[in-house]
Amino acid sequence: MDFNFTEEQEMIANSARAIAKDFPPEYWREKDLKEEFGEEFYKEISGVGFTGIIIPEKYGGSGRGMTELLIVMEELAANGCGMAGPWYLILSEIFGAMSIVRHATEEQRARYLPGIASGEIEFCMALTEPDAGTNTLNTRTRAVKAADGWVINGNKTWISGADRARGMMIIARTTPKEQAPKKTSGISLFLADLPNPAIMVTSIPKHGINYSHSCDVGIDDLKLSEDALMPPLDGGWHSLLYTLNTERMSFTTAAVGIARLAMSKAIEYSRERKLFGNQPIGSYQALQFNLAEAYAGLEAARILNFKASTLFDSGAGITEVGATANMAKVLAVECAFKAVYWSMQTFGGLGYARDNDIERWWREINLIRLAPVTQQMALAYIGEHVLGMPRSYADT
Ligand SMILES: Cc1cc2nc3c(=O)[nH]c(=O)nc-3n(C[C@H](O)[C@H](O)[C@H](O)COP(=O)(O)OP(=O)(O)OC[C@H]3O[C@@H](n4cnc5c(N)ncnc54)[C@H](O)[C@@H]3O)c2cc1C
C-alpha cells in the first residue's frame, strides 16, 4: 500500500497547478457571468495534452490512466478553476474518449480519438431523458435498423456541451424494454457527428457552471450509417456502466478540488479578520471545527476515490469499482458541501458577494449532489450492492 504519487504523477500535478494559476477565479467569474466557454483555457489544456490523458499514444494521447486524469482534474479545480477544470475534461475524455477507447471499433477510434486528444473534437453524452433520469433503463430514445444504417428518434435533456460539441454519444433502445429478455439488454450506444439538422439543441438556463451550456436535445429521424453503432448491439448497458463509474470518480474529484479551493480562501481570511479584541475569527471553534471536520472527510473521500481509480486502471470488475466510486462520491459531496458552506460563513456578508467567488463554488457543489448520480441513488447502490440489503425501491 503506497499513498504517494509517483514522480511522474507529481510532475503531472505540478503542470496542472501551473495552468490553473494562469486561469484564476476572476477569469471563471467573468466566464460564468457572461455564459461564455473558456476558449483560452481549453486551448491551453489541450495544448499540454490534458484532453488526451487516457487516450493511447497511437491516437495522439499520452496513454495514462484514470488516476492521472483525476490528479489533473483535482489540481485544476483546487488551484483556481473550481468546477470548470474537471468539467471540460469530463465532457471530452469521460463522455467521449473513455467509451471509445474501451468499446469502439478500430475505425471509430481512428475517427474520433486523435481529434479529442488535440482538442479539435469536443464531445457530449446524451443519456438523460425527460422521463428517464435516475431510471436510465426507461430510456425511450429509439434506434431502428434501416436498410443502410440506423434511424434514431427521441428527446434528451441536460446534455452538457451539446451546443458546441462535434461528437455525441447517444444512448438508445434498439430493443424496447418490454421485448428485451432482460431490462438491462436492448440498449445500444451510437456515435453521431454534430452539428446535424436532425439534432435540435436548445440551451437550458441554469443555476451554475454557466461557462458551459447544458441543453435539451430533440432527435428527429436522425439517419446514421451502420458503423455509428458502438458494439455490441443491445449490450450497451454494460459498456455504459464503465463510463458512468469514471464519471462518478471525476465528479468526486471535482467536489474535493472545489472544497480545497474554497477552504484555502476562507482559511487565509480567517487568520486575518479580527472582530473581538485581537482574536482572529479562525480561532473560533464554530468555524474551525466545522472546517476541520469537513477536511478530514474530504481526505478520506479522496483516498477512497483514488482507490476506485486504481481498481479501474488495474481492470477490476464494474461492481467492485462501482461500489468504491459510489462510497467516495457520497462522502466527498457531503464533506465538500460542508466545506464550502463554512467557507462562505467565514466571510460573513462578503461570502454572498459575487466578487468573492465562493458563491459560485457553492452553486457548483450543489450540482454534484444531484449529478451524475443523486446522493440517494448512490446510497441505494451501497445498501444493495455493498451491504447486501433489500433494494430500497420498487424496480419496474
Ligand atoms: C447541470 C447539469 C448537467 C447535466 N449534464 C448531463 C449530461 O451531459 N448528459 C446527461 O445524460 N445527463 C446530464 N445531466 C442529468 C443528470 O445526470 C440527472 O439530472 C440526474 O441523473 C438526476 O436525474 P433527474 O434529473 O431525472 O432526477 P429524477 O430521476 O427525476 O430524480 C428526482 C429525485 O428523486 C430521487 N429519487 C429517484 N428515484 C429514487 C429512488 N429509487 N430512491 C430514492 N430517491 C429517488 C432522486 O434522488 C432525486 O432527488 C445533467 C444535469 C444537470 C443538472
Low-confidence stretches: none
Strand order of the largest sheet: 1-4-5-8
CATH class of the largest domain: Mainly Alpha
User: CA-to-CA gap between the ends?
Assistant: 42 Å
Question: Shape from CA axes?
Answer: globular
CATH fourth-tier homologous superfamily of the largest domain: Butyryl-CoA Dehydrogenase, subunit A, domain 3
Domain count: 3
What's the count of strands?
10
The largest β sheet comes out as: 4 strands, mixed
Count helical runs: 11
Rg, alpha carbons: 21 Å
Helix content: 40-55%
Chemical compounds bound to the protein: flavin-adenine dinucleotide
Order of helices and strands: HHHHHHEEEEEEEEHEEHHHH
Query: What is the CATH architecture assignment of the largest domain?
Result: Up-down Bundle
Structural class: alpha+beta
